[in-house]
Write a structure and sequence with these properties.
It is a single chain. β2 and β3 form a beta hairpin. With 170 residues, the chain is an alpha+beta fold. α1 crosses α4 and α3 crosses α4. It has a three-stranded antiparallel sheet. The chain is 46% helix and 12% strand.
């Protein structure tokens, strides 16, 4: 029985799964977008998003070094770790999460597997703003504050026009 077991095993042993995720994560960091199956893309998203979050925590030099070592223990690829901390990290610094996007591509001929493209959100040139500088940190707002603003500003500034029935009656 697999009660409460939320990990997708992808039909592989643990060692094979860990090696595959490390390889796919380093390729995603290097090329910014890869095409794989939908199940692997969803598993990769849960694997790589915490690693990208570790690049944002830069309190002290010791903390940065510690995060480099933690990420290297997951990726086992020096070039990918360097790319993550020097290129990807500064670009996603203002984003509060959700660094990857999964786009479904249809089925694969041969085995009918669902294909998907997983990409880093801030590195697309096709849609959105395209390549740009690191954005300012997102402003944290509370949802309840919006209803107060609407209640304070009544519709006194726009006078209502009389309807067409009232105009014909006069």
């Amino acid at each position: 029985m697999r009660h409460g077991d939320k990990i997708n095993n992808l039909g592989r042993t643990k060692s094979h799964r860990v090696a595959m995720m490390a390889n796919m994560a380093s390729q995603l960091i290097t090329y910014k977008r890869i095409v794989t199956t939908l199940a692997k893309a969803k598993a990769l998203r849960t694997y790589i998003e915490p690693l990208i979050t570790k690049t944002k925590k830069a309190d002290s030099k010791e903390q940065i070094m510690h995060n480099h070592r933690l990420v290297f223990s997951y990726l086992n690829d020096k070039a990918a770790v360097k790319e993550l901390f020097t290129v990807v990290g500064p670009k996603v610094a203002g984003r509060p999460g959700g660094y990857t996007r999964i786009i479904k591509l249809g089925i694969r001929l041969g085995d009918n597997a669902e294909r998907a493209m997983i990409e880093l959100v801030d590195f697309n040139e096709i849609y959105g703003k395209g390549k740009g500088e690191a954005a300012a940190p997102a402003k944290k707002t509370r949802r309840s504050g919006a209803s107060k603003k609407k209640a304070e500003s009544p519709k006194e500034s726009t006078p209502e026009k009389p309807s067409s029935e009232e105009q014909t009656a006069e």
